Amino acid sequence: MPSLRDSCEAVLRGNDRGDYTVPAPKLYPHQWAWDSAFAAIGWAYIDAARAWRELHTLMSSQWDDGRIPHITFHVLSDEYFPGPDFWGTERSSSITQPPIWATCARRILEITDTPPTGLKSLVQKIEASHVFFAEHRDPKDLHAVAVVHPWESGLDNCPAWDGPLSRVDVSDPSLSDHMETTEQILGKLDLASVPRLVVFNKTDQLDPRRAAMLAHAHGGVAVSAIQAPTLMPLLRRVDRMLPAPREENEER
Length: 252
Description:
This protein is mainly alpha-helical and about 250 residues long. The chain has helices at about 5-15, 35-45, 50-60, 85, 100-110, 120-135, 160-165, 175-190, 210-215, 230-240, 250, and strands at about 30, 70, 165-170, 200, 220. About 45% of the residues lie in helices and about 5% in strands.
C-alpha cells in the first residue's frame, strides 16, 4: 500500500503540466492562482526547481496593476467555462484570489533551503500584488480587503453567496445575457437540476406588468427592497420550497 507521501506525489505528477499544476484534469484544467501556490509547496518536498518554476509561472501572468488573475489559460480550450471571452481578456480571468504567494515563497525556501534564480524579480512581483490589494481593494484604508466576486474569497460555492447570486436586477439592460450566463455556469457545475428560485430584484424600476410577466415566464418572484409588500410572496415561495420540519418524536 503506498504511503501518504507517495499518494500525494502521484496526484501532483498526474496534474503536472510542466510549468504549472492543474487542480483537476477535467473539472479545472487550467492554472488557478492559490491552488498553484499550494501545489508549489507540495513540489518543494519533491523537486526544488519544479517548486520555484510553479511560482514563477504563476507570477508571469501578473497584470500591469499588480493583480494575479485567479485563472491563467495557458492552453485555450472551449471545454471549460467561463473562459477568456467571458472575462473580456486574452489569457486570464479578471479577478484574483487570496494572495498566499508570499507565504508560498517563504515555505519553499524553508523546505528546500535553495533560493531560485530571479529571486529579486519574484519578490518584486509578489510585493506588487500586495500593493494591488492595498490600493484597489482597500481604497479607503479600512484595513479590510474587499472582494468583487465570490470566487475571489476561496469559498466559491459557499451557501453564504446563494442569496446575492440568486437575485436578478431587472433594471439591468443586460438582463437576458446575465441570466443565460448563470444557466451556463450552473450547467457546467452539474447544478442545473438543483431546485432554485429566481428572484427578480429592483422591480420598482420597471413597469409592474413587465415585472409580473418576467416572474411568471421564469417561475420566479418579482420583488423590490424598498417595497415591503413585494417581499411576502417571496417568503411564501421560500417556505413552500423548504422541507417540512420533522416532529420531535420522529427525530428520536
